[in-house]
## 1
Amino acid sequence: MLIFMILMIMMISSLPPTLSVLPPDYLVAKPNCTDRCGDVSIPFPFGTTPDCYGNYSFFVTCNQTIHPGPKLFLQDSDIEITDISLDGQLTVLPYIARECYAPNGSRDGHGASLTFSDFIVNNTANKFTIVGCDAYAFISGGRLDNRNYTTGCMALCTDDMVDLVEGSCTGLGCCQLAYIPKDVRRLRIELRSFANYTTRSGFDNCSYAFFAAETAFNFSRQTVADLKNVTKLPMVADWAIGINMTCKEAEKNSSDYACRSSNSTCYEPVNGSGYRCSCQEGYQGNPYLVDGCQDINECELRKCRYGCQNTNGNFTCLCPKGYKGDGENCSLRQSVMLKLGAGIAFGIMILLLAATCLCLALKRRSFNKMKQRFFLQNGGIVLQEKLITRQISPESLKIFTSSDLQRATNDFDNNMIVGQGGFGTVYKGFLPDNSIVAIKKSKCIDPDQVEQFINEVLQWHSFFPRSQSSEGRFLSWDIRLRIAAEAAGVLSYLHSAAATPIIHRDVKSDNILLDHSFTAKVSDFGASRMVPLDHTQLSTMVQGTFGYLDPEYMQTNQLTEKSDVYSFGVVLLELLTGRKAITFDKPEEEKNLANFFLSVLKQEHLLQILDDNILGNDQNREQIIEVAMLAQGCLNVRGDDRPSMKEVAMELEGLRLGGKHSWVQNECNAEEMESLLGEGYNGHFIDGDGDSTSVGFDSLRSHDVLQMSGGR
Ligand SMILES: *[C@@H]1O[C@H](CO)[C@@H](O)[C@H](O)[C@H]1NC(C)=O
Ligand SMILES: *[C@@H]1O[C@H](CO)[C@@H](O)[C@H](O)[C@H]1NC(C)=O
Ligand SMILES: *[C@@H]1O[C@H](CO)[C@@H](O)[C@H](O)[C@H]1NC(C)=O
Ligand SMILES: *[C@@H]1O[C@H](CO)[C@@H](O)[C@H](O)[C@H]1NC(C)=O
Ligand SMILES: *[C@@H]1O[C@H](CO)[C@@H](O)[C@H](O)[C@H]1NC(C)=O
Ligand SMILES: *[C@@H]1O[C@H](CO)[C@@H](O)[C@H](O)[C@H]1NC(C)=O
Ligand SMILES: *[C@@H]1O[C@H](CO)[C@@H](O)[C@H](O)[C@H]1NC(C)=O
Ligand SMILES: *[C@@H]1O[C@H](CO)[C@@H](O)[C@H](O)[C@H]1NC(C)=O
Ligand SMILES: *[C@@H]1O[C@H](CO)[C@@H](O)[C@H](O)[C@H]1NC(C)=O
Ligand SMILES: *[C@@H]1O[C@H](CO)[C@@H](O)[C@H](O)[C@H]1NC(C)=O
Ligand SMILES: *[C@@H]1O[C@H](CO)[C@@H](O)[C@H](O)[C@H]1NC(C)=O
Ligand SMILES: *[C@@H]1O[C@H](CO)[C@@H](O)[C@H](O)[C@H]1NC(C)=O
C-alpha cells in the first residue's frame, strides 16, 4: 500500500526545475595584464605591454588621461579602438574626409587616410560614402600583395534638393560604394569639389567622404547636418594571426601556434589574411590562452525541459526519474512500469487481503452475535439469571457452550446419534471427565417453548435437585409413576412401618431425590417429628413449604400423617402436570397448583393441565386419570377424607404393576428416553460415582438423612 502511494506521488511530481542563467565568465587576458580600457575589453593576443600582447601587431595603448576617457589606441597611432572581438574583428574610429567652402572662396577641409600594418579592412561590413552636392572622392587601397586599388564616386544635387531620397545613397546628395577588395590594409581618401560650391550651395557648402561601418551612417538631411560636428566614424577591421599563413602551416610550428587552448580549433578567414582560433562547440573563452576555452554549462541556459546534466563540452537532457528518452520525449521505463505494476498488484493484493480479513472478522462477529442472539432467544440469559437469583451452584447445573457440545459429540458425528425424532436428534456424548451424556439437538426453536423449557429446567431441577433438567422433562409416565409409588412407599413406611410414626412435615418435590436409575428417595427430615403412638395429633408451630402445606394443618395447627398425604398429593400433581406447586408468574387462579388442579377437575378439563410429555397412549391415560383421582383424594380439605399414605402407596404400586411397561410415549420421546436411559446412563449432573446412597444428599447440609433406598 505504501509503495503504491509512493509511486503515485512520484508520478505526480515531475515538474521541470528552474535554472538560472549565468553570464559567461571566461579568461580574457593573461594574468596581471590589463584586460580592459574603459568600456573596451582587451583580449589576448591584444595587450598593452610586451608581456601581455602576443605580437606587436596587437599592441594597444590605453590613454587614461584623455578626456573623455580612457580611450584605447592601436599601437602608438591615433587610431582609436572601440571594440575588440575574439571572432577576429575590431572596431576603430578613423577620421572622415571633409571640405567646406566659404563664400569668399576659401576652402577648409582635409582628406583621410588609414594604414594597418597587420590588419585588413573588412570588406563586407563597411561602405565608402560621399555626402555633398558638388563633390567627388577617390579611395585608394593598398592590398596585401602591395598592389594598388582605386575607385571613386561623386555626389551632386540641384539647388532645391527636391529629388533627394533619404535613406538611400542614389548619387543625389550621397554616393555610396558597397564593394572594395577583401584584402585592403591601407586606405587613402581624397575629396574634391567641381566648382568650389560656386554654383551649388547645398549642405552648407560642405562635403564629406568616409569609409565606415554600414550601420554608422544612414543618409538623411539631419544626419548630414550632424556630420558638421563629427570627426570620426567607426570602421570594422579584421584581425588574424600570421598574415599570409594557413592553419596547416601554423600548426607545424607548434611553438608559435596561436591556438594555445585545449578544445580550441584553427580556421582561416575568407579574406586569406592568416588564421584564427576558436573554442570548440560546447566551450567558450579565449582560445589563444592556455586553458582559455572553458566548458559551457549548458544546463544554466535552460536547454532541457526536465532534468539536465552537463558534460565536458556537451550536455544531456534528462527525463524525470523512472522515465527514459532524450529529455524531450520521455516515456516510462519498463522497469518502472514493472515496479509500478508490481506496486499496484501488491497494493491490490494487500487491499484484497485486508478486505478478506475484515470480511472474516465481520462474519465472525456476526456469527458470535448470532450465537449470542440464539443464546438470548433460547432463554440462555433468563436461565443464567435464574440460576444466579436462586443461588444454584454451578456444579449442580451447568450451561454448556456449543463448542463444549461439539467436542462431546465429536462434532455431532453421525456415529454418535442414538435417537432421532420430530423435534431433533439425540447424540451420545462424552464430557472431559469421561462421563457419558445425552445431548439433544433441536431442529427448530418455538419461542413459546423457550420460556416453558426454562421453567421446566428449573422445576425439574428443584423436583429432582441432582438430576438433569431436560431428563426430568422427558421422564416417561412409567418412571413418574414409579417415582410416585416409591416416594409414597417411603412415606407410608415413615407413617406406619416404623415403631413410632414419623411425620415428614415437608413433603415436596425438592425433597424427592433420584439416583441414576431413577430410584426415588425422600430427603430432608429436618422438620419431621416423631409422633407418640398415643397421640394421633400433635400441636406444633405450622411448618412446611408454601404450596404443599395442608390447609387443615394451617388452620388447626394440628399435625397428622394426613398433612404429609396432602403434600404428597401436590407432588403427584407436579408429576402429572409438570408444573410447580406455586408459580408466581402465572395468572392468579393458576398460581397455586392444588387449587388450579381442583378447579380444572371440577370443570372436567383435566387434559388441559396434564403434562404433554406423559400423554402417550390410552393405557397411560387410564393410569393418569387414576393418579389424578388419587391426587384429588389426597387434596381433600378434611384430613379424614384423605386416604392414608399406605393406601396411596398401595394404589400407586397397584397401578404400576398393573400397567403395561411401555417406554414409548411418543416417537420423539421414546428415542430420547432410550438414549438417555439405554446405556448405563450416568448423567453428568449426577455424581459420577453413581453411589445411590450419596447421590444428591449434599443439598441436605447438616440435616438428618435417612437412607431409604428401595425401602418401602
Ligand atoms: C602578478 O602581479 C603580482 C604583483 O603585482 C605578482 O606577485 C604576481 O606574481 C604576478 N603574476 C604573474 C603570473 O605574473
Ligand atoms: C607577429 O607574429 C608572427 C608569428 O606569429 C610573425 O610571423 C610576425 O612577424 C610577427 N609580427 C611582428 C610585427 O612582430
Ligand atoms: C594621451 O592623450 C593626451 C591628450 O591627447 C596626450 O597628451 C598624451 O600624450 C597621451 N598619452 C599617451 C600615453 O599617448
Ligand atoms: C574667408 O572667410 C573665412 C570665414 O568665412 C575667413 O576665415 C577667411 O580668412 C577668409 N579668407 C579670405 C582670403 O578672406
Ligand atoms: C601604390 O600607390 C602608392 C602611393 O599611393 C605608390 O607609392 C606605390 O608605388 C603604388 N604601387 C604600385 C604597385 O603601383
Ligand atoms: C577653387 O578654389 C581653389 C582655391 O581655393 C582654386 O584654386 C580653384 O581654381 C577654384 N576652382 C574653381 C572651379 O573655381
Ligand atoms: C556657399 O557659397 C556660395 C558662393 O560660392 C555663397 O553664395 C553661399 O552663401 C555659401 N553658403 C554658405 C552657407 O556659406
Ligand atoms: C555641433 O557642436 C556644437 C558644440 O559642440 C553644437 O553647438 C552644435 O549644435 C552642433 N551641431 C550639430 C548640428 O549638432
Ligand atoms: C604570402 O605567401 C606566399 C606563399 O605562401 C608568398 O608568395 C607571398 O609573397 C606572401 N606574401 C606576404 C605578404 O608575405
Ligand atoms: C577538451 O580538452 C580536454 C583536455 O585536453 C579533453 O580531455 C577533452 O576531450 C576535450 N574535449 C573535446 C570535446 O574535445
Ligand atoms: C567582416 O565583418 C563581418 C561582420 O562583422 C564578418 O562577418 C566577417 O567575417 C568579416 N570578414 C572577415 C574576412 O573577417
Ligand atoms: C553533444 O551531444 C549530442 C547528443 O549527445 C551530439 O549530437 C552532439 O554532436 C554533441 N556535441 C558535441 C560538441 O560533442
## 2
Amino acid sequence: MSLAERIRNLKEELGGTAVLVAVSKTKPASLVQEAYNAGQRVFGENKVQEMVEKWEVLPKDIQWHLIGHLQSNKVKYIASFVSLIHSVDSMKLLREINSQGEKAGRIIPCLLQFHIAQEDSKFGLSFQEAEDILQSREFVEMQYVSVNGLMGMASFTDDEEQVRNEFRNLHNYFAILKSNYFKYNPSFKILSMGMSSDYKLALEEGSTMIRVGSSLFGER
Ligand SMILES: *Cc1c(COP(=O)(O)O)cnc(C)c1O
C-alpha cells in the first residue's frame, strides 16, 4: 500500500471525528511532500531544528505541530509559524511561549501535556500542577498563548485495559478543566491522544486528535 493510500484509509477510519497529525520526525522532507500531495496538511515533529528545516523547504500552508519535549530557549525558532505546541509541561515554558508570541505578534496555540503513563520517563504535568498554572494570575494575564486542550501519552504496554484507563483519566481531566477554567472558551476542545499502536483505543476514549507516525511512514 502506498503512503497516499495509508493516509486515505486512516482519514476514512477517522471519518472526521478526530484530526490526523502525521508524525514525520526523522523522515525526509521528500516524504512529507508526498503526504502533502496526498492531501495531508498537518504534520508533527518532535525536534525544533528538524521542524524548522522542513518548514523552510516545504509548502507554507502546512500546519506544523511540535509534539516533543520543548526547551524554553528554543521557542524563539518556531514562534512565528508553529500551529500547535502539544508539549507544554511547565509554567516556565508557557511564560517563554507567551513572550515569544508577543515578539512575533501572534497568539500561539498550545496544549498542556499530562503525565498519564506508568513509566516515569515521560514528561508531563500532574492534575495539580496543571491547576496551579491555570489558577495563577500570571497565566490569566498571558495574552499571547491560547491553551486549547490537553495531550498525553499512554504507557508502552500490551495491556489494553491499562492504556484505556490512562486515556480515560486524561479525558476526565479534560472535562474537569474545561468546566472549571474554559467553560466559555470554545477554543478549549482538543484532546490529543493516540499513536500508531493505540489510536483505536484513544478514539474510543474520546480523542479528538491522533498523532500517527510509523504506521503511515514506516518504522523509524
Ligand atoms: C513519535 C511520536 C508519536 C508517533 O508515534 P508512532 O508510534 O510512530 O505513531 C506520537 N506522539 C509523540 C509525542 C511522539 O513523539
